[in-house]
Amino acid sequence: MEKEIGTVISGIDSPSPSALDFVVNQGVVHRGQFVELDYSEGTMICLVTDVFKTNRYFERAESVKEFESSGAKLFEQFPTAEWEYLVAKTRPLGVFKNGITNRATLPPGPGTRVRIASNENLKIFFHFSEEGLFLGNVENHDLPVKISMNTLLKKHVALLATSGAGKSHCASVIFEELLDRKKEAGRIGIIVFDPHGEYSSFADRAPEKGKTDYSGKTILVKAMDIKIGVPKLSVNALDSLIKGLSPVMKRELGKILADLQKKMRSGKGPFDLLDLKEAISNSEINENTKGPLLAWISELQDLNLFGKTDNPGIFDLVQPGKLTVIDLSELIDLRKKQIIVSYISKRLFYARREKAIPPFLLVLEEAHQFCPQQASEEMAICRSIIQTIAREGRKFGASLCLISQRPIQLSTTVLAQCNTQIILRITNPYDLKHIGESSEGLDSRSLDMITSLRVGEALIVGEATHYPLFFKVRQRKSAESRHEMPLEKAALDFETGKEDKKKEIEEFL
Ligand SMILES: Nc1ncnc2c1ncn2[C@@H]1O[C@H](COP(=O)(O)OP(=O)(O)OP(=O)(O)O)[C@@H](O)[C@H]1O
Ligand SMILES: [Mg+2]
């Protein structure tokens, strides 16, 4: 058992089942640390939300000023040090007895002795699992945060923080843990939509010394190489990608598609938009419908995204124990990005429902762009499939990891389905308020603490740990993202010609 460090004191509102202060008798206690105490309901675990020092000698401003303005020092003439106390404010998180955790309904009495919480108790309390994913360490406790894959991912996870606070780093740590799993432990596939190319370094062969080589477990797909196979698309699927079909156009297009699909099955081979256009031109459709239909197909062609077959095929896209990075960084057109995300997510979800592919984790960086709270259907092409996965995915082993620096812009339907949230530093008050409202169990003090987190420090809330827990995300084993290049190096690279793409861009323009 850990050594006793303090005693519960009596204040105006504490001790109560939701607030408890204690005075430190020996040693120190830090904000964010956990303490425990035994009383009638069992062992209570409390989070230290604040610590402050008091000293009677310095309580009255006018006396301190009067004494010290003459040049004398209080601490030289009085035993001030003996009257300095360290008081810790805590929030009782719960009580456990015989391995069962409950909320406290009675406070411990003033005078109860307080200990630093033991690692054994914290492990039980936060539902850590020895075989779980090692995400980091609980600061001041030397305790690894290990969360079972099932509880962290099954009911989806959201990674929320201001830019640069460490979201992608934390996501990379989760990927490493998933990639390092043995077959017997159960391995899932990971697919990440990567708008900034932050994860392509996982595919680096022979990364710098000390870093683990994940290239053998990484499939890198460049946006430019992605093709959507036209024969797989129904009229409704096409219409959901690009709006603009009238009911008549839909009906005629449906007939032509059905005819082409029939011919394909009879041995003519797959078809693309060019074939579709030709079939429309040669058909007997009324000219008033034909014109707009051909114009609509031309719009699809301009996207340069459709082909005879899917590339990559769904079975190449997701494999157990492998990471597929879909690098969208070379795409500027948000609509094209959305079409890719929507199409691939749909295929993944339906294929998993049929158990044709392994369980997977679908990771969406910049999630607020893909499933926004406020945007018309046309501007949020993939929102509905992401909402469907959020609602139903857990039944099939289709999990989501949403990453965003603007939680307030993220669809609340989707955010509410993320049963675990990992929150790193957030300073924007609107985002904080939104998070406070969407996660029960987060009080105003914890929210305050989120604003002062340093890079890589996180708060995990929700089903994975049951109680909010601050921790330091561990170092990564994989190569650092190239995206995080220091400004000095980027400037130097430009001047030494490495990034001088002027000619290329002029030609392009
Ligand atoms: N736990 C950590 N330990 C050490 N370094 C970290 C940690 N977390 C983040 N960093 C460093 O901080 C920098 C920013 O992290 P990261 O790229 O993950 O931020 P981000 O939240 O994804 O930002 P953005 O919104 O711009 O994508 C990186 O250089 C990264 O290496
Ligand atoms: Mg990032």
Task: Identify the notable features of this structure and list them briefly.
509 residues; alpha/beta; Rossmann fold; 3 domains; eleven-stranded mixed β-sheet; six-stranded antiparallel beta barrel; 20 strands; elongated; binds adenosine-5'-triphosphate; binds magnesium ion
Give the SSE layout.
Blueprint: E1 4-8, E2 20-24, E3 34-39, E4 42-55, H1 61-68, H2 74-77, E5 84-97, E6 100-102, E7 113-116, H3 119-125, E8 133-138, E9 143-147, H4 149-153, E10 157-160, H5 167-179, E11 189-194, E12 218-222, E13 228-229, H6 235-241, H7 247-268, H8 273-281, H9 287-302, E14 306-307, H10 314-317, E15 323-327, H11 334-353, E16 360-364, H12 367-370, H13 383-392, E17 398-404, H14 412-417, E18 420-423, H15 429-438, H16 444-451, E19 457-462, E20 469-473, H17 487-495, H18 502-508
Parallel strand pairs: 10-17, 10-18, 11-15, 11-16, 12-15, 13-14, 16-17
Antiparallel strand pairs: 1-2, 1-7, 2-5, 3-4, 3-7, 4-5, 5-6, 8-9, 8-20, 18-19, 19-20
